[in-house]
Amino acid sequence: MPPRFTPAQLEAARDRLVPDVVADGLRVLFCGINPGLMTAATGHHFARPGNRFWPVLHLSGFTPRLLKPSEQDELPSYGLGITNVVARASARADELSAEEYREGGRLLAAKVERLRPRWLAVVGVTAYRAAFDDRKAQVGPQDRVIGRTRLWVLPNPSGLNAHWTAATMAEEFARLRVAAAD
C-alpha cells in the first residue's frame, strides 16, 4: 500500500528533485516527463496510484514480476533505468514551460551521451516533441539518435492518458523490449 500524504505534504514536495535510477550501458533508459508530487514525496519514480508504468513494464515482459515504485533500484539488474526530461517536481506537466522542456532535452542528451544506453524511451509524445523540437513525432521508434543511442517514444502511462489502455501500452512497450534485445 503506498503511503498516504496530506495535500500540504504533497505541496511541500513541489520543485523537489528525484534521483535518477541509472547505470552505464543500460538496454533501455526510460524517461518520464517530470516527477509528480507523489513521486517527489516518496522519492520513487511513477509512484502515483493509477500510473500504469510499473504494471505495463511487467505486462510487456521487461520485468519478471510487478515491481512496486519502492523497488525501482532493481531496474538496473534488468538493464533498465529511469530519468526525466525536466528534473523539478510539479503537480501537472502543463506547469512546465517550453524553455524547461528544451533545456531538459539538452541535459537529457548530455546524460545519454555519458551513460550510453542502447535505447532512450521517452514516455509521452508531447514531452518528446517539446524536448527535441520534433512536432511531427509519433509513438514508436524515432530516426533521431544521440551518439549510438536510439530513441523510442512510448505512450504516457499516466492514468490521465485515456487514449491508451494498459494492454495497448504493454504492446508498444513490448515492441521496444524486442528491439532492445537485438
UniProtKB/TrEMBL annotation:
Alphabetized SUPFAM superfamilies for the sequence: Uracil-DNA glycosylase-like
Family matches, as PANTHER family: G/T AND G/U MISMATCH-SPECIFIC DNA GLYCOSYLASE (PTHR12159), G_T MISMATCH-SPECIFIC THYMINE DNA GLYCOSYLASE (PTHR12159:SF9)
UniProt-listed InterPro entries: MUG/TDG, Uracil-DNA_glycosylase-like, Uracil-DNA_glycosylase-like_sf
Pfam families referenced in this protein's UniProt entry, alphabetically: UDG (PF03167)
SMART domains tied to this protein: UDG, UreE_C
Keywords from the UniProt entry: DNA damage, DNA repair, Glycosidase, Hydrolase
Gene this chain is encoded by: mug
Protein name: G/U mismatch-specific DNA glycosylase
DNA repair as UniProt keyword: yes
The species this protein was found in: Streptomyces nigra
Gene3D superfamilies assigned: Uracil-DNA glycosylase-like domain
Taxonomic lineage from the root: Bacteria, Bacillati, Actinomycetota, Actinomycetes, Kitasatosporales
EC number: 3.2.2.28
Uracil-DNA glycosylase-like domain location: 19-180
Superkingdom: Bacteria
